[in-house]
Protein 1
Amino acid sequence: MESASLTGQHPLKPAPVARVGDSGPPGRRTFTRDIAGVMCLSVASLLAGLAINYFRAAPLPLVYQTPEQRLATELTTLVEAPAFRLSDADTIPLAQLRSEIGDPKTIILDARAAPFYQQGHIPGALNLSRDDFAADYRRLRLTLDASKNKSIVVYCSGGDCHDSRMVASALLSLGFAQVRVYTGGWSGWTEAGLPVEK
Amino acid sequence: MTERSSRYLEWVLRLVIGGVFIYAGWAKRNDGIEFADSVASFRILPSAVIVPFMLSIVPFEIGAGAMVLTGWQKRVGALGLFIMASMYCIALALALARGITVNCGCFGTSAVGTNPWIDLGRDLLLAAGCAVLYRIASRSVAPKPAL
């Protein structure tokens, strides 16, 4: 009774039940409980963040991609499934292409794969292949970005080749305004016996 | 420090720290991939962790800030914010030591052009404030010694 009166504890009140984390001194017990609280808050925040992201209009992918990787993915998607915006009016015949060769206001792009481009291409043409569009676009980016207001002519092999239309549509999606396609392509150029650059 | 002044200090710290972190979380609520880029620019976390970490920051800051401000589980809130502010300080100090240009993104990615040294100083102050708040809040619940 004497000790109970000294501590102010009622003699009939049961002793407090020990809980998990109650084994140390009072300060440490409090700290341990607070750390557990912070961990619970962290887990709840993670779950809330994932839920908010899930219901976003455009959820973020959970694995981070660098801006370069995102650009490559975007460009690849753009050229593989382009929103075709070209009409027949956006094509040019061989005679018109010939007149624009050497014109500083015109850029000619070869949409064929690099090995074909290296074997020979229209003089002054740059290689922006459909096969490796993302890498080629990044390589030519400075030149292309400086030519947004210039006329761009794209060609590929010719005949049934659609690479030039796909590249041209991708360029239109990227903000290039004056993009046209030379439908005769490489075969049309060589069959006419015109000069070739290697 | 008297009990009264300690109580005033606690109130001031709760208002400032709770307010700052709720504002910081709210400012970042619409940040998407730009905030992930900002986290990635520190070059500390692996890419698999960056997006989940960044997604949890906004609820954590707002939640812990609200705990501190309202007083409900204020010690948990203060400790959580202390850990977070310390983490920011370490990340900023490492970036400065390695000469990496980073955008803190602490108050949203639109708030660009801040000086990393100012960011570091502010985060150090916040961490110190959280530590003091946790200390005061812990003392106020500590059992009084028996006779």
Protein 2
Amino acid sequence: MATEKEVIDELYKIIAEGANPREARLAISKKFPDWDDRKKLQKIIPKVEKMFPTIRQTYIRKTSYFKIFLIGPDDIRARGKKFPQKY
Amino acid sequence: MSYLSYNTAEVSREKYRKEVTSVCPECIKVIPAVIEEDPDGKIRLKKKSPEHGEFVDILSQHPEYYKWSQNFLAEGVAIDQDKRCVPNTEKGCPWDCGTCGRHKTTPILSLIDITNKCNLRCPICFANAAVTGNVVEPTFEEVVKIMKHLRSLRPYSNIAVSFSGGEPTLRPDLPDMIRKAYELGFLQVMLITNGIKFKSLDYCKEIKETGLQTIYLQFDGTTPETWERTRGFNLWPIKQRIIRNLRIAGFDSVVLVPTIARGISDHEVGNIIQFAIDNIDIVRCVNFQPVSLCGRIPPEKLAEMRINISDLIHMIDEQTNHVLNPNVWYPIPVIAPMANLITWYTGVPGVDFACHPDCGFATFMVLNDQTGELECITDYIDIPEFFKISNKYWEEVSKRKDKFHRFETITGGLNELLGVDIPFLREIGKGLDGIHERAYKRYIMARYFWDVLGLIKKTGRAIQSVSKILLRTTWDDVASFMYDTLMVSCMHFQDLYSMRTARTERCIIHYGVYDRRDGKVKQFPFCTYNSIHRPLIEKAIAVPISQVDEGEVLTMEKEYKELEKEAAAPLPKE
């Protein structure tokens, strides 16, 4: 079982490296399978956000980064369907 | 099954036929042409040059879609005559460009080519300095002159400018140009780039500091093979790194621009849309651009190579599991009447989307962050009716918008009658006119909003954004709509085979050019500039590459070699 701090630090690192929300969620779910839970992740998001400078926090909010992150790595569906291909 | 299921009611059953004006692809003389529906069910452009024979180009594989799309012809807001470089047309379109007195619209976006130098050597490109042997670069002062001209256009001064090339990031004074553009009042400044320089995070940050909003990023596919075919070597890992760097630097508006060529990148459209969805936090739009055809092409080869709008719609339909099916697309002018209404209401110079329906099409995908579902704007609102209603109100407003000087006229007349000049009376007149105008604007927008409410199919995030636009009516609200959505669009540029003056006259994407031959700033519609005018203009400022500073040429070559080496290197482990 990973601690909250470990997950927060890892998520901060992934975002700081420029991962997209899907990649970030995928990496967290892979490394910390017990944290692949929307409600649990929702609680730590404000803490991760606060680790960034103010200008970066505004940017993260403007781009809906965490809203997309919370959807899940494979759950974005378009009008009920998934695209047939994956690059 | 009908190609367009719910709009066929408005499609004429008669065979399509329209006489138009085009050019001979060989000698570029203006010649008559006809667009007609053939018995095999294709819409073709046919023209016969007295000297060079007959030319046939397929405009659409789907006559129903083509006929339906022609319904969306919006009335443009033309540039004031005194702002046109060639007010008196002599040779006719497309030869009297600059723009000429016949042009029907105002540009929504102007491009300025700031260099033809490039750090790539793409097999599909014929225009860079390495190929032509000449360097073409306007000076910083000339670029400023162009921007000042674009800002001076009336009634809509240009609010969006894009620096392009060649590769514009090779100009060391690019940051100064971007800053100058904002200083001159452009609201939207963009950069059309292959992105190679953005593999340096420091460069990303340097450009971000200028305030630049949007990056138009060359993006041909998501596999090494596609990049090898379009650009000569595997740029895929570099492009992924560029996207990451742009995110780290704080860019939140990236437009992916795939060039679609048959047999080369036409299998990538679904993948590219998927990539955009995965990066929807910063990717605002995917703008597909079928490759333009140039040079002498045999007829059978032309038919084989051509990708038109209907082809692209079908590719997207197939490659997105029918999510983006033919029913979700609309020609660009759909938005024109609404944009005109917002411009009129806000009093802020706006944008005129009244291009020809054949110029492009678009749809919006809206992300529902609760369900993770991407929905189309057509799921929310009845688009054809929205266009009709917007057009109805814009026509109503157009008839009346300049008639708010009644009280001022009356009080002015009273002054004259009394033989005095009482400023107070004039001010009262102006004040009453202002109240009248504001009340009329609110009255129109309230009725407009009420009618639009009746077109809503279901509520949700997209409707909240549309409501904000209509209720508060500011350009900021229009911009914020883009942050809730992913736009997928296509600009289908003309080449000499497909060119029609009716389209050219409505072009809304112009090149701003400083013509050293007569010292004038001119605007050229995108397609006529690339197909006809560019070589003539550039000849006047071209400098043979041998005369350019040797160090500069060597740097260009060195950068290219390094890039080639980097692309060939094995991928670093994550």
Protein 3
Amino acid sequence: MRGKPRETANVGAGLWKATGMWAWVLFRISGLVLVLYLFVHIGVISTGRFGEQGNTLNSIMKMFENPIAVLLDLLLVWAVLYHALNGVRIVLMDFGLGIKQHKWVFWTCMAIAVICLVFFAFAAFDYLLNGQGVK
Amino acid sequence: MKAATVATHKGGMWAWLFQRITAVLIIVTLGTHLVFTHILSIGEIDYANIGGRVAHGAYTAVDLILLAAGIYHALNGLRMVLMDYWFGRRKLAVGLNIVLWIFGLAAAAYGAWALWPWIGYQVG
């Protein structure tokens, strides 16, 4: 980007070479995944109102007690963290912060996202290995 | 060309602003939601376990704010994506807005209805 005229650097094919553009593509994909999850989640939790004393909800929750579901959950947490931390970068840029250093800000945000992910990964693997949540 | 390519404001000024406001609300409330559900809480999630959390008034407030802000943010985000590809024309965009508002308000009401029995839930 440095050296190219500012007006043309982010236009056309040049757009797709930039970190910021891939950040944007992943932002969209993670956003769409989260939209889908949100409404599935509302639907699943609402089953608490059906059946005796939450029986329907409890039997659905039993279905999620397997390693594949736990790993998918972890993937979902990554989608949330990526979307949240890249979103922080976008809001900062809206305030005029870190526009020139946006790549550095992006990788700093990703580092924070990974650190947060470690806590959830710890909880997930503790559950998978010991069959227990973190007390 | 450049402005058209990277525009984030074409969904309207208020939608843009509310997308930022809900983003900040979601970071706080979803952070709380996830940490309480998966880090601080116990392993097995079931009806009683959810009730134990939602029974606390402050946690109920967190979940309800998350519900409303999440639905707004999700549907406005979806709207921005749809407008980029298929709903660019004004008439279609207006129709899309109406459909999304009806769907969003219904989903928020349904979600609040779903949480209702847990408010004030007695554990055990």
